[in-house]
Amino acid sequence: MNKVKPLILVSNDDGYRAKGINELIGVLKEFGDVVAVAPHTGRSGKGCAITSETPVKYWVVRNEPGLQIYACTGTPCDCVKIAFDSVLERRPALVVGGINHGDNSAVNAHYSGTMGVVFEGCMKGVPSVAFSLCSHAEDADFSASLPYIRKIVSEVLDKGLPTGSCLNVNFPDAPSYAGVRVCHQANGCWQNEWAAHTHPNGGKWYWLTGSFVVSDTDAFADRVALNENYVAITPLKIDLTDYELLREMRGWGL
What is the SS3 assignment for 118? Predict the structure, then answer.
């Protein structure tokens, strides 16, 4: 009897044509059947945004044994939702986001559409992993990351992840890495986030810009690990409850 291959759902926020998702698909096909449902164009920075006031559609881009690719007009989170609702014929063993063109460490995980993919998969109770490379180049070189992706995917398929937990994996933009660190989110924030310009017809318009400043020096903070040329693997939880503050507040006498 032929063993049923694991089903792996893939999406991203750079669009289905991006080099990163296609490199990722090439690796994931080694582990099982792959279905990719990804935005038809770039949706970076959409986080967990969903489309609620306009219709969403999707269509087949590629269909072959063991691989189906669909383009979708929605956000990355929409892509996962519509995949579960209308595309997948069985429950996936794994949801994967990426490979993102750009760093998603520290608080950037909150803005990331790639992480929106993974958070949605995690909320659906499926082990979910995001992969990002610290390069925004369209033709970025992902080759150093691929052996690590194989190892991480293999481990997650074998061991699973706790319900409500997912992985945010970031790779330095380098031809090789110093190793792997399992990290926490670094403390840091964006500064000088908007550049103001004068409109030809008067008034101001603003372009999102800025620089990310890390205030963390811990070697096991994800952004610090990346700066030291380590692959940073950060376990994250969907439950945002601050349990320490919760216990304190129960003594406030409210």
Answer: helix
List pLDDT tens digits, range 127-180.
Answer: 999 999 999 999 999 999 999 999 999 999 999 999 999 999 999 999 999 999
Question: Any idea what DSSP says for residue 29?
Answer: T
**How far apart (Å, rounded) are the C-alpha atoms in residues 129 and 156?**
9
Q: Which of 165, 156, 112 is nearest to 134 (CA)?
A: 112
Backbone angles phi, psi at 14, to 5 degrees: -95, -5
DSSP characters for 65-83? Answer: TTEEEEEESS-HHHHHHHI
Kindly list the strands in the beta sheet with 58-64, ordered across the sheet, starting from the edge strand earlier in the chain.
Answer: 58-64, 67-72, 33-39, 7-11, 94-101, 128-133, 165-171, 230-237, 179-182
| Pairing status of strand 230-237 against strand 165-171 | antiparallel
Residue-range domains of the chain with CATH: 7-187+217-249 (3.40.1210.10)
Tally: H helices and E strands in the chain: 7, 13
End-to-end CA distance of the chain: 62
